[in-house]
Amino acid sequence: MRGQIRKAISGFYYIYANGKIYQTRARGNFRQRKITPLVGDFVEFESKNLIDGYLLKIFPRKNELFRPTTANVDIGIIVISSIDPDFSLNLLDRFLVLLEEKKVRPLIYITKIDLLNEEKFYEIAKLAQIYRDIGYTVIFSKDEREKIAKLIQYFPHHLLVTIGQSGVGKSTLLNTLSPTLKLQTSKISKTLGQGKHTTRFVELLPLFDGLIADTPGFSSIDLSKIKATDLPKMFPEFIKASPFCKFRECSHTHEPSCEVKTKVEQGQIALSRYKNYLNFLSEIRSQRLD
Questions:
Q1: Could you tell me which of 1, 10, 75, 78 has the C-alpha nearest to residue 40?
Q2: Tens digits of residue pLDDT in 238-289
Q3: What Cα–Cα distance (Å) separates residue 219 from each residue in 79, 165, 189, 192, 201?
Q4: 3-class SS at 219?
Q5: Single residue among 60, 95, 110 that ends a domain in this structure
Q6: Which has the closest alpha carbon to 25: 42, 37, 40, 41?
Q7: Are residue 156 and residue 41 in the same domain, yes or no?
Q8: In this structure, is residue 208 part of a structural domain?
Q9: Same domain, yes or no: 82 and 207
């Protein structure tokens, strides 16, 4: 039979097929070939009943994420708080680079707007517009019902994951989408400024004719696996400008007649995005030299 892994825990893989969930184990040759089945994988398996089956084959993946451990992801919902923890452009751009590199469509969902004063609200609204102008979908509104309604539109026939710093409200968001889930949430640690991990394994949850994974939050992303020459391709506004650079493989750092730098100077590319690009580039280069 063919199906999709919906949950993986303690060596068991729970596969959805024909409207049922089958509990399976992977054959030993997966371990020998160093292949790890992931939630979201489309697979072939055999089973005589619902609790005693074997996973036989994993079909090719279109992508895979290891934080969260999920395969064949369509949309990555970047859940980022406007306050507590504070809105971080550096962290947001890190998540965007990660999803761009994995060919996952990003969707930016901003939480805790009700905690903002008027001045802070307009500050975050301006930042949200920067990312909309780049072409990203940003869900930002004082009306919680409106935000949820917009998000639900992206569910049908898609596999979505939530990613973001701990304590930004990923589990709270899912509980709002489907109150019957009753996922555990945690308070922000005043000492660390971040929440505790509340989700211990990845599971695909059927919602609104789609699937979504609730995952542990984390506050940092390792970009070292991305090549320095590939990093500019993770910034859509750089891609649009780069054909007009003097050099074909322009790194947008020291080269003369660089269209990206020109657009930054003209305010057509956000200075914050360019500074984060330089920061990431330096980080990647230094790690490759270690």
A1: 75
A2: 999 999 999 999 999 999 999 999 999 999 999 999 999 999 999 999 886 5
A3: 12, 5, 13, 11, 18
A4: coil
A5: 60
A6: 37
A7: no
A8: yes
A9: yes
CB atoms within 10 A of CB 155: 19
Planar angle of CA 8, 171, 82, nearest 5 degrees: 135
Nearest-angstrom CA–CA distance, 101 and 45: 31
Tokens of 16: 């959805």
Confidence grade of residue 131 (pLDDT, cut at 50, 70, 90): very high
Distance between start and end Cα atoms, the chain:
47
Joined together, the tokens standing for residue 108 give 């930016």
Residue 20 and residue 128 in one domain: no
The answer on 235 and 102 residing in a single domain is: no
64-84, pLDDT tens digit by residue? 987 778 999 999 999 999 998
Q: E strands, 48-195, where? A: 53-58, 64-66, 69-71, 75-81, 105-111, 137-139, 159-163
- pTM, two decimal places: 0.88
Tokens of 151: 């998000």
CA distance 249 to 260: 12
